[in-house]
Specification:
- The protein is mostly helical.
- The protein has helices spanning 17-29, 33-37, 40-52, 57-126, 136-145.
- It has one domain (17-145).
- The protein is built from five helices and no strands.
- The radius of gyration is 31 Å and the shape is elongated.
Length: 146
């Protein structure tokens, strides 16, 4: 039986120390991705772990640490911060919200007023009148004919 020699594939070759340091650093710095994406930092650390776990114990260890740390510190703390702000918001709404009820009620009437205004416009137009909405009618007319 003759054995064939196969050259090591790039995915099975061990990393040199410089590459190990680079990938371990990138695994830890993947937390910066969270500043932009909110949650993709642990995904980047997981990808580094999965790609390099068989090639370097050092990178595997560092990237797994980064993954777990980010899940606890970023995701876990983010949930706790979100819940705490929700509690603060609810408690604030009890006091501040009571004072804002009249303003909210007036604002809630705006869609109803717009509905009535549209019905009036429809009636006017059905009677052959040229109806113009306040502030909007002149602007639309100037862009349409101008």
């Amino acid at each position: 039986m003759s054995e064939q020699y196969s050259a090591p594939t790039p995915s099975s070759m061990p990393l040199n120390p410089s590459d190990e340091r680079t990938w371990a650093m990138l695994a830890h710095l993947s937390i910066l991705i969270n500043l932009v994406s909110g949650i993709l930092g642990p995904v980047a650390a997981l990808i580094i772990y999965l790609v390099y776990k068989d090639r370097s114990r050092y990178v595997a260890y560092q990237s797994l640490q980064s993954l777990i740390f980010q899940l606890i510190a970023w995701v876990g703390a983010g949930v706790i911060v979100g819940v705490s702000w929700a509690i603060v918001g609810v408690l604030s709404a009890v006091i501040v919200g009571i004072c804002l009820i009249p303003i909210a009620a007036i604002i809630s009437l705006l869609p109803l007023a717009a509905l009535v205004y549209g019905v009036v416009a429809g009636i006017k137009c059905s009677q052959g009148e040229d109806f113009r909405y306040w502030l909007v009618g002149d602007w639309v007319r100037s862009t349409y004919t101008g």
